Fold:
Amino acid sequence: MTPLLVSDVALNELTACDVIQRVRSGETSSVEVTQSVLDRIESAEPTLNAFVSVDVERALARAESIDKRRSRGEELGDLAGVPIAVKDVICVRGGRTTCGSRILEHYVAPYDATVIERLHQADAVLVGKTNMDEFAMGSSCENSFFGPTRNPADPDRVPGGSSGGSAAAVAAHETILALGSDTGGSVRQPAGYCGVVGLKPTYGRVSRYGLVAFASSLDQIGPVAKDVADAALLLSVIAGHDSRDATSVDEAVPDYPQKLTGEVEGLKVGLAEEHFGAGLDEEIRSAVEETARRLEEQGAEIVSPLSLEVAANPDYCIGAYYIIATAEASANLSRYDGVKFGFRHRGRSDGRADLLEMYRQSRSSGFGAEVKRRIMLGTYVLSAGYYEAYYLEAQKVRTLIRRDFEKAFARCDVLLSPVAPTTAFPIGEQIDDPLQMYLNDVYTVSVNLAGIPGISVPAATSSEGLPIGVQLLAAPFREEALLQAARAVELGLPSIPTPMRS
Amino acid sequence: MAVTVEDVKRIAALARLEFTADEEERLTGELNSILHYMEKLNGLDTDGVEPTSHVAPVANAFREDEPEEFAHVEELRAQAPEMVEGYYKVPRIIE
Structure:
């Protein structure tokens, strides 16, 4: 089906800000935009596999009711009629929430996550649930029970992970907006690989109620969007205190979109020397340097060199992260036991399996290889005799990582760095080498350990035609500065790198 | 601290997982290489450093302890692999 064209731009290729304006003015209906997105999903999914489930009827019914309310003269919410896709780790009542796992293949959440309630209140239109590495464990979207997602820029390559489905769907215009979750880079890295904007808010900024837990002290829900303005808008909708998440912080939510000018005069942008060490792809290095140069031209002050001795040293941050993340995961994933929900192994043919056997069989056939590997690692580092050497040591290193960032942000407003050491790699290349896969997260994990916000913004295209993103970081609750700098990066680009077109 | 196949069996039992002999062999190698990498942390001086367990600037987020009805009990129960008269059914625990 030919996409609906309005002044040469297909509706599914619009930004959220454009859609809202058109829906509010009556120029375009939410049904038209939603249908355009659904058509795109139909044509792109055989290649990309970015979605685990798409709810056509519910999406169109929702869009229709929004259009009706508008025609009655009612004022619409902040996301008036905008289609959005949600990573399949966030609970949406009445539909499947699989976490990319066999163990939750048929799980239907009996309640909505807080972010979903907020999306509904803002009049967004949920189109489907996006693919992901199982339980958000992975950096390539290959660890999904539902098959890998492919990168829209090159379908032989990974979209990154774990929110690879959300990033690919936004890049391919299968949705206008998406939500992902970021435990060690899972929003920022796929956004970088796919050429879209990905934001990980400060820990506690967005409620985790209804987000299936991977590592509770690190997990945070974040926006995936086509541009910075859309990311700012989506953040303003989902941010804020929630009494149902005891770690959510009661801190006023600024009007992020309102304040977004891209004005960076006098903004101090720091570069940490450790972020440019061995293993960094040359094209990415020059993209970051070029971005710094452009920001300086726009009036920003470059503060260099700064040092993040522990926070940017792979030997320390990757180690500390994978100890803490797997330890928390091993505890969180103990709930999957085949009793109250999820997959249950039927046991021996004589029906005489005992309880422990049922647990073991359900978990062993329900979880995939990477999840089991992480549960094993986490159980090991928490086990008697090893707790102090690994887990406690990692928690101390976490303190040192926080201190590194505190010192850096005493001298600058934002830090500029790569998102990942390389561009998107070929599917299958790293799947058999778990340690190599973990090292992809070198620029992103410290951000979660310190609980600070970070954003990935498209900054260049590689000689192979692949997107290159840069990462900006800020002190806790300084998302405004982050978005301002990110907008400036966008404004400084000679042309916006274009993701896959229909 | 090299991990042995015996360690893998012991950890698997704690984690309520089971593996084939081949998988145990493979996991032993993988865990060793990952843990070996993690041991680089020992290169840092952390004497006297307080551990960080969470970063949110909140503590003891109390609320009124009031019971609430969960609105969708039937949907919750429908998720159970096996239920009998409102109870979760599991294999026999006591002979």
Q: What stands out?
A: Chain B touches chain A through 54 residues (CB under 8 Å).
